[in-house]
Amino acid sequence: MRVVGIIIFFLFGGNGILHSQTEPIYFLNPSFEGKPGVGNIEGDNLPDDIKNCGFKNETSPDMHPLSEKVFGVRRKASNGKTCIGFVTRDNFTWESVSQELSESLQAGNCYKVSVDLGRTENLKSFTRKDRLLLNFKNPLVLRIFGGNSHCDKQQLVVESVPIENVFWKTYSFEFHADDNYSHLSFEAYYDEEKAIPYNGNLFMDNLSPIEKIECSEKIEQKNSVLQSRFIAGLQNRKEVIDKLKNKLVALKENNGSKQVLQFIGFDDSEPDYQKLKSHLQKFIEIYPFNKWKLSDLGKAKALNISNTLKDHPQFGVIVALKHETAPILRSRRARNLRKYFRMKGILESKIIIQEFHELKGLIDWTIENEEMAAYIFFIKEGNFIFPKEN
Question: What is this structure's pTM?
Fold first, then answer.
């Protein structure tokens, strides 16, 4: 009887140990259940078990569904009654939240998790700085971080592909935990294959339990690549910001001469200024889809600007293209536009064509819309008069 007792204890004890090792890890609120509501700076629209990890003075993610009157979209949850919606902004900020896990991920283990993701083609919101109504329609990636408190981002464990689908779609991920983590953070981030930053949206719902799986060489390699890309992304962001600063300096040096840009105000109510501003406001939809040459309508609009600049030599214009297209296409469009104005006899010192991300945050634009931004500056005795001194 004593031997039997030991065998029975071993069987039940062994099963108990094995069960605890394979038990799924759960999220406290996997389907993001809460009250529908627009995000705010305090983040108190989120359920208590979901913490806002966004930027200071920026709003938290929204809880959907909301009335179409709010953002022009009504997104139903894929599971339960509510889901969460993130945005990125063209001021280098993005939205993020975190959740605590039922038990910690263990260092050296591999796991799998799935989540429903989607986006919308129509999410119109006002920018905080300029109060411009823009469409935050562009695809984003989901990034998941492991940490040991809310908003603690010690390791990037998952990065999705850019989420193009407008309907809900389930995505599955396998990852490696380099350390023990009691929390996961979720953030919407830019597709770094595009020019960043930009306005975009991402919806998330229906997180699965996290299951432990066998590690494989493929998972380990993916983890190594992911960490390298994350570090490279941080460096790229720094380089983008540095490039913007260098562009400002280059513009101020006036093509290498000793003449520098100065701020000199002028009356923006004068008719000539208003005429040029009106032409710039209409300078949209100038390219056919996925083409780099101006359309006939685009040429007509560009000609109005060209003629106005010829008639009023005291004015110059900075035009920044905002088209969300492939970098090569954006670059060719900018070159094509420069060539057009040169052919019309407009000096490059009178109309400066740039890509928007190169000058973002450096200029207080005269006008700005979804496709372009423009600033009218004043020319005096051959010198540029730049809009903003830093």
Answer: 0.59
Mean pLDDT of 302-315: 83
Report the topology of domain 18-235: Jelly Rolls (2.60.120)
Task: Using CB atoms within 10 Å of the CB of residue 286, give its burial: 0 to 12 exposed, 13 to 18 middle, 19+ buried.
Answer: buried
Q: Which CATH number fits domain 253-385: 3.30.1330.60, 3.40.710.10, 3.40.50.300, 3.50.30.30?
A: 3.30.1330.60
Contact status, residue 144 vs residue 99, Cβ threshold 8 Å: no
Q: What is the pLDDT of residue 210?
A: 98
Which residues touch 151 (CB under 8 Å, ≥6 apart)?
51, 53, 96, 98, 185
> If you ran DSSP here, which 8-state letter would residue 259 be given?
-
CATH 3.30.1330.60 domain position(s) in the chain:
253-385
For residue range 237-253, what is the model confidence (pLDDT) as tens digits? Answer: 556 545 544 554 555 45
As given in the structure block, the two tokens for residue 81 are 């009654």
* Residue for token pair 């999220």: 27
Contact 301, 285 (CB under 8 A): no
Here the contacts of 105-108 (C-beta below 8 Å, separation 24 or greater) are: 105/25, 105/146, 105/177, 105/180, 105/181, 105/182, 105/210, 106/177, 106/180, 107/177, 107/178, 107/179, 107/180, 108/176, 108/177, 108/178, 108/215
Write out the residue limits of the CATH 2.60.120.200 domain(s) in the chain: 18-235
| Integer Cα distance of 317 and 370 in angstroms | 18
Q: What percent of the chain is modeled with pLDDT above 90?
A: 38
pLDDT at 304: 87
